[in-house]
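User: quick one, fold this
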Amino acid sequence: MVTVYPRNYRRLISEYASPKVIDEITTTKKAMLEESASIRDSRSLFWLPKHSVTRRTAKITREVQCSWNARLGPTARKIPAEKVLQLFNDLQIFPTIAQVNEMLQCAQKCAGRVSAKYLTFNEFCIFATELKRSIRSRYVNKKC
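Assistant:
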């Protein structure tokens, strides 16, 4: 329940209320603010998946989205073939030109497109996630 006070409630309270009532109001207001802050903190991470693989994928997707928006803008739906390598490099992923061409061909076949001139955001996320996973697994395997 939200309590709505008139605009001049502070002045009214200070003029007509006793110090004890003012302390109670202040304490109640502080408690309400702390409670709303704790609710806000718990809600801010509600979308965070519990499974570590899913968490890693969500993190990579957020990184991809930030790089995508920086390079192409938030309204772009496709990335031209000539900018794919640059976007991967923005994400600290360094595939070869042959790997990028293979990704474009794979996306063309899977989506049933006539040409391999672009990738959509979803396709790019999948490829970026797979490359990040393969890079990470290589480093993990070398340490063992």
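User: anything notable?
Assistant: The chain has six helices and two strands.
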